[in-house]
Amino acid sequence: MQLTEQQQNWRDVARDFAKRKLEPATEWLEGDYFWNNAKKLADHGFLGLTLPEEYGGMNLSIFDACLIIEELCRVCPTSGRHAYHASMGIASFINQLGNEEQKKQYLPMITSGKLFVGLGMSEPEAGSAATDISTTAVEEGDFYRLNGSKVFISEAHLADLFVVYARFGNTGRTSDIGAILVERGTPGFTVGPNEENMSGEVQCALYFEDAMVPKENVLATNNAFKKLMGVYNGVRLGFLSQTMGITQAAFDRTMEHVKQRKQFGKEICEFQGLQWMISDMYVQLEAARTILYRAAEAASDNKPDKNAVSVAKIFVAEAAQKITDTCIQLHGGYGYSKQYPLEWYYRCVRAASIAGGTLQVHKTMLASSVLERKFDQRK
Ligand SMILES: Cc1cc2nc3c(=O)[nH]c(=O)nc-3n(C[C@H](O)[C@H](O)[C@H](O)COP(=O)(O)OP(=O)(O)OC[C@H]3O[C@@H](n4cnc5c(N)ncnc54)[C@H](O)[C@@H]3O)c2cc1C
């Protein structure tokens, strides 16, 4: 897909920044390295890509933001992921659903790198079945009383603010579901211990036990689920750009390796069997990128096309898994070794088939749209 001059410019700016300011990462990074990079990202405006300029953002389209996230993740997935979270991930909920006060209070702190935000949606008994969440928000004077728990919350160990999905009514219907902002330190609210996932990224559980949250923190209540999922579709594209960048990094390293590694007296890229594997990977990469960019283009007016997002999600996640697996194969024992980053790239992109809705759930939604039938997931 042909990029406009402006889009190419954003891609080049991010590529140049990543090369000069970030070190190529080979594992998930925490501590000083993470904080130093977070500061560099904030100084260059990369923590507010899609957020309005008045709050320190760059006001870019989702497409432009995706191009930037991809380039950052190609060099340092941790930094790219952070830029995605701040710029077009969880902050989008505040930007698109929040009132003026909430935006003024939180967005400048996010774009300047002083505030990290987590998204509390998944629950122990409600993952794919997101409409089954049972965390409740019961009105009491000037507060909502929150009870329930969340699991798998990315960057929760760093976050001081959480967008929390909860039930504001008791009809048992989806229309009860809304979202509220909960600050760390709210009595009755605790962040669980750090849990490392397959890529090395930290996730935590969240616990609400009679946590009293001021009413002014509400983001959305009645009949908000569709709106919430609309914002979430844009968020998904950022996650896929991250996957695309990591997959490209694995491919780049593999191309260097096959041109330099010799067996049987010649570079291994001279073997025709490997050339075909390389061509297949390249076709998958090009197709995945084109499908992702089409979905990002459609989403750029902040109204993502649900089907285009699901198509991108399915294709990019499956291609990334296949490509990084082939990259390991082409590295032989070095691909399987923890001394080289190939196995880590594979572990990182594996998340795309699960986070943001599993592939099976996206395939069901897509089939429902294609067949124009609603499939009941319950007995
Ligand atoms: C890296 C990562 C980061 C995450 N970050 C966050 C976060 O920041 N905030 C947050 O709230 N959550 C987060 N999650 C959680 C994520 O959204 C859930 O893991 C995901 O929605 C799946 O839910 P589950 O894990 O409960 O799996 P389950 O829903 O239990 O699914 C198990 C299996 O059953 C299949 N399945 C379930 N229902 C159906 C069906 N109807 N038809 C066919 N197959 C079905 C699934 O596809 C899957 O294969 C993250 C997850 C990962 C991996």
Automatic annotation (TrEMBL):
GO molecular function: acyl-CoA dehydrogenase activity; flavin adenine dinucleotide binding
Domain Acyl-CoA oxidase/dehydrogenase middle: 119-210
Top-level taxonomic group: Bacteria
Segments forming domain Acyl-CoA dehydrogenase/oxidase C-terminal: 230-370
Cofactor: FAD
Entries under InterPro entries matching the protein: Acyl-CoA_Oxase/DH_mid-dom (IPR006091), Acyl-CoA_Oxase/DH_mid-dom_sf (IPR046373), AcylCo_DH-like_C (IPR036250), AcylCo_DH/oxidase_C (IPR009075), AcylCoA_DH/ox_N (IPR013786), AcylCoA_DH/ox_N_sf (IPR037069), AcylCoA_DH/oxidase_NM_dom_sf (IPR009100)
Pfam families per UniProt: Acyl-CoA_dh_1, Acyl-CoA_dh_M, Acyl-CoA_dh_N
Keyword vocabulary terms for this entry: FAD, Flavoprotein, Oxidoreductase
BP-aspect Gene Ontology terms: butyrate catabolic process; fatty acid beta-oxidation using acyl-CoA dehydrogenase
Domain Acyl-CoA dehydrogenase/oxidase N-terminal, first and last residues per copy: 4-114
Similarity comment: family membership: Belongs to the acyl-CoA dehydrogenase family.
PANTHER family, A to Z: ACYL-COA DEHYDROGENASE, ISOVALERYL-COA DEHYDROGENASE, MITOCHONDRIAL-RELATED
The protein, known as: Acyl-CoA dehydrogenase
